[in-house]
Design goal:
β1 and β2 form a beta hairpin. This protein has five helices and twelve strands. The protein has two domains: 11-135, no CATH class; 141-235, no CATH class. With 239 residues, it is mainly beta. Strands 1, 2, 3, 4, 5, 6, 7, 8, 9, 10, 11 and 12 form a twelve-stranded antiparallel β-sheet that branches. The N and C termini lie far apart (39 Å). The radius of gyration is 17 Å and the shape is globular.
């Protein structure tokens, strides 16, 4: 597996994001991330160290949400050597910058807690542990991946939701857009994004404005995909 700033994991890892809620006690409170007042379009970054275990590849997902907006100067200054040394591994993925698209997150279970670390002056909280196959690590765009997560994402009524529809009618709601392939991609570009995507046969991209809050839940697992710009979507499950 080639290791570089541009190495990426596909949907199963890159999209694993949840919110850590504050712990009791003043010291713990100071360490825990705080949800920004406006979550929609909030910028964040992830660092994903990958370890080889007896059970296969294991990835840990560390996320900046709630600490700062992942300052560009600090993010760009991170080096491969620094990251490999910090996590004592042979592979580390820099997944970002990204921007959230939901308006609220509620996390539960293992998704709710994690350690806080600082790398290169950037503070991050551990969000998830993910077991990977090589297929999951390097799978192509528009390929479903299953991840472990206990979250509910809320998309407010009256605000646009950007989604993909597969050939079988399955709907995937965009949970974050990425500035990895296109650093200039912005929230204002998302309504017309379909014209830019290299959609496989039978796929379509659309914008939908719900008339009531849309709740996208994962109770243990979530099915996610990424498009060819590395924007991440979660599959809507039947009611």
């Amino acid at each position: 597996m080639t290791i570089s700033r541009h190495l990426h994991l596909r949907s199963g890892v890159a999209a694993v994001v949840a919110l850590l809620l504050p712990l009791a006690g003043s010291a713990a409170q100071a360490q825990q991330p705080q949800l920004p007042p406006a979550l929609r379009d909030a910028r964040y970054c992830e660092i994903v160290p990958i370890h080889v275990t007896l059970d296969g590849l294991r990835a840990s997902v560390y996320n900046t949400l709630g600490f700062d907006d992942c300052p560009a100067d600090k993010w760009e200054a991170l080096t491969r050597r620094e990251l490999l040394g910090a996590f004592e591994t042979l592979a580390v993925v820099m997944n970002g910058p990204r921007h959230f698209l939901m308006d609220g997150i509620v996390a539960a279970g293992a998704t709710k807690t994690g350690e806080v670390i600082t790398v290169g002056g950037i503070k991050l909280a551990k969000r998830a542990e993910v077991s990977l196959s090589l297929h999951q690590a390097m799978g192509p765009a528009f390929t479903e991946q299953t991840i472990e997560r206990e979250t509910t994402y809320r998309f407010d009524a009256g605000k646009p939701v950007f989604q993909l529809t597969g050939p079988d009618g399955a709907v995937y709601v965009m949970q974050s857009y990425a500035q990895i392939v296109d650093p200039a991609l912005a929230y204002a570009d998302l309504p017309g994004l379909g014209a830019r995507l290299k959609l496989p046969a039978g796929w379509s991209y659309s914008t939908h404005t719900p008339d009531k809050d849309l709740l996208l839940s994962a109770t243990g697992t979530a099915t996610v995909i990424q498009d060819d710009l590395k924007n991440t979507y979660q599959k809507m499950m039947p009611n």
